[in-house]
Predict the structure.
Amino acid sequence: MNHLHLRTYIAFRLVGHRLVTAATTLPGWPDWGRALALTTAFSAVVLPLGLLGHWLTLTLAPLSSLGSLKLALRVFLAPALLEEGFWRVLLLPHKTERISDRRRWILALLVLVLFVLMHLFSSFTVYPNGFPTFTQPLFLLSAALLGLVCTLAYWQSGSVWVSVAIHWVVVFTWLMFFGGYGQLQLT
């Protein structure tokens, strides 16, 4: 087997391992407790900054009950499940992988920068309606903090479901109650 085939084989095995392990690791109550603490800390920073900076506004999305349910499902699938599956599970080492803390943090910071840049660049390309929001410094700071919180939750629990839940709650809450629905012109 030549080196290219071996590297490809190893890469596919690693991706498979990460996906299966992250999806089948069920979080326990301590994991959910840490997730709640991380989400509370995130909210304690982002809510005052967002409200004072007028990026967040107490605005209820103009949706029916069915529309709200559809939005909840949509946000669960994308961005929560899709982004967490890619940015946390595929790109970061699982807690069962042997890697030094220094390398783990270097990778995490690199992935975090790319995560924030992805939001910025998507507003120029695939999602131009997001441009006014995705280019705001407060939004980018919030995205960075959300990425950090989701990374910590994923590392601590080893389960993608914890970071997906955090991502889902934060984005759905923003869209439904803090003006995100109108900002992204989802109407």
In short: The longest helix spans residues 65-90. The chain has a mean pLDDT of 96. DSSP finds eight helices and no strands in the chain.
